[in-house]
Amino acid sequence: MPYPAYMEESIRKVEATRAERLKKGPLPRIPEAEREALVNKFHPDYRKEEMRELKVGPNKGERTPREVADLLEGSSRIDPDKIDLGKVDYDVDVLVVGCGGAGGSAALLAEENGASVLISSKLRLGDANTIGAQAGTQAADRPNDSPAIHYLDIMGGGHFTNDPDLAEALAKDAPDAIRWLESLGVEWDKEPDGSYHELSGGGCAVRRMHSCRDYTGLEEMRTIRDEMRQRNMHGRKIDWLEFEPVIELLMDDRGQVAGAILMNLETKQMSVVRARAVVMATGGVGRTHIQGFPTTNHYGATADGLVLAYRVGCPLIHMDTMQYHPTGAAFPPQILGLLITEKVRTLGAELVNCDGEQFVHPLEARDTEASAEIRECKERGKGVTTPTGEVGLWEDSPMVDIIRGEGTIARELPAMVRQFARFDIDMIHKPMLVYPTLHYQNGGIKIKADASTLVPGLFAAGECEGGVHGRNRLIGNSTLDLFVFGRRAGRAAAKWIKEVKPGKLTLEHVRQWQRELKEAGLESMPVSPMLLPNYARGNRPVPGFVPLGEASEYTPFGDRAVRWI
Amino acid sequence: MAEVAEKEKVQMLDIYVMGKRYKVPEGLTIQTALEYCGYHIIRGCGCRAGFCGACGTIYNFTYDPTIRYALGCQKEIEQNMVITQIPFFPATEAEYTIEDLEPEEGENKLLTLYPDIITCFGCNNCTKTCPQDLEVMEFMAAAIRGDIKRVAELSFDCLICGLCAARCPQGLQPYNIALAARRIYGHYMAPKSQHNLNRVIEIEEGKFDAELEELKKASEAELRKRYAAREIESAK
Description:
By secondary structure, chain A is an alpha+beta fold. Chain A is built from 16 helices and 21 strands.
């Protein structure tokens, strides 16, 4: 779907200001005091009416988006009285729940540290947010950089709300995470002498983004997945169940997490897994479509890990803060909300309004950048409205080839070129229309530096844990988080299984949970974990959403289909 | 601009899901069209953004038997399209340990792992199939020659959707062969990054521990001060 004529007209204004903008360079960064006011006024996290207070569980009294609260306070999918825990289907040392970069790293490290590992994967092995990560992975490994500078960036990006121990672990383990991935065969972008080709990113003082073209997460994930397959073929103790998510954790009578109940999504059969340790690595919440936002997230990003951990009494942290990526596609409608990597701005593209004017430095931290975009559209009316009623701003991608030489976009951003070309848009020569999209859950399950949680036997890694990034994560620190805390969780779980004294399996916590829901008047809440969104027409996909209309009313545009509130 | 949307009448198209006809509005992708038809997808859906390869799809048209290929989430439906998804295709990967694959003079490791690749007769079905428009047959030829670097380069954007293997008349699996090539290249052949290895050692030796410890203990006001005073390296 090429741009309609009136959008082409706006593009001509962008082109008209380009030479002058190239000469002047980007706008200055926003001073701290002004930045806070901007974020407070325009960032979706600050819309109080969109949050509600939790009535039960370890975070009782705290506020979180309504969509997440409904899931956290959902009813169990199982009736504990009808489950026979005497019949154990799988008996393993470590159960890993979820298999993106964090789950995969945890599984590999647990296995090589002597544990038998079973992975529960809701989709295929590796079909996770990791695979869609484009820009890169941070690591302070150049001579002019240091883990201390990286630490400052992490803390500043998170507005100094991060857990210092976790931020330190992230910065300190980073160079070794890059080395580890390369030892598995990851092909990093390199200069001819072998040094890494490193780019800067929003909120970073030093260039430290390690990339694999704009398929960084794909390269990381397919390599880790292959390593798991190879170890499995060699008869090593690592195995997985695809399309078989966890629907409830098991505990033992000593108060430890001790396994899980799994459900086969195709046959609906349940199985009992006994495990000495469980690593939660279920990723994010994008498919709950908080505040009706489209999302960059994969099909299974439905907050399952938060729900499961919450029900065994595990506290969550920073659950009132989500990351809205500044550049989700606003056009064409078929790719609405999908990620346009920050790397495009890293390489030099500016954001401009319908008149081709800059309104923000292109590399502010993500919450600031997104807030400035929302202000430009909502308050100043300088957005471009698409034929389907979306509003967006121009990301002036052609600047990249002008600044860095012809061929840069094709070489550095093949995924972006391909994605837009599929819908007849040439992003090498024409700007892209963008708007913030729901991208990342900043908070999550509270962990310590070894990735253990506050409930014995339960570990967590990757997007489902919180505290690492504080209230705002920087580019390239999410994929890093996977390998740093994934590996830490795998090691810690393997250590834990040698020390733990297992008790008798129980589902008493589920009975207790249902009683608490009843006392709080929440017994009619929908069941959770959600497992998969249901986008089938005629279904209620997410609590709080009304059914879709008839064909004549249907707006046939991807995730928009489920966003009618 | 909302008026524009209302004025434009949405056209309904006929599509055939595994032979069964549905009427769906134009503008949907194959994936959202299936959902419009009422399917709650379990297999055949992953990132929904063209990166994971879970939604490999085969289609043709009622009036044109030529078989075509796409990712369901990245292809817009067209009138009289007949579609079926291939969410899984059986393929047997060769067994190896990356540490045992060091390239040696006179030995083509890819041929050792996958001896059948010499049976490729260049029909080019794999290239025509690839939803990423990769030169699959070209990298298969490079694999037969033992040019691992070339295989790694040409196959880099592979999503491992498996459609090439589904269409190979010789039962070859180009995506797995390319995966092995890239891992060998990344592990052995790419030049080493000395500055990274140096940094790993420095960290192990505790070079940054005192500085980090001090930062961890610093007050928020102090951290804010240092954060604001950071020297920002040019973007390059």
